[in-house]
Amino acid sequence: TENDVINFNADSSKETKREIQTKPADISVETHYIQSIGNSKDLCTPGYSTGCSQGDGFIDFAVAEIENYNSGCEDLNGTGWSQYLGLGPAILTPGYSYDFIMKTGYGDQYVTIWIDFNNDEELTEDEKILSNYIMQSAGTLYTVSAEIPSDALMGQHLMRARTNWAGSCNDPCSDYTYGEAEDYYVVIGEA
Question: Which residues on adjacent β-strands are paired with residue 186?
Fold first, then answer.
């Protein structure tokens, strides 16, 4: 809600506790204590030979508290790969659907989104929340709904959104030619 207050107390330790307080419209305070899952570089590295330099991938990506508009091709962590771990996190509830807002600079982008619900640093088939959604045209803002599984584990998790040009995007790590991968944090709260 627009009344959300998010406080982070962090240091470089993987065991850092973070406090997230949300103030819904009724002004009650719900507090979640979560363990940082550490640096997501422990995940596989998504490979691209060309990546997003020709407009492939995401220009815009947003869900809940994550709003990454006009990011373009930043290649912050390698060709076609950027981690935006300082944005958000998106606070999501099991069993609810959320609108993902995306735009690309080059059409025919296949989009898949994973959330590492069990924090094992492997993005698996059962952790996909969106599979091969196609952004057909460049410059069009797409809104697609994805549901968080009702049995999703509470706490902070890594989310990877990945594109592949003109072909399925079924693997969070495989080498593709054109596209982009972006990593974010999400927090799964109580229903």
Answer: 90, 157
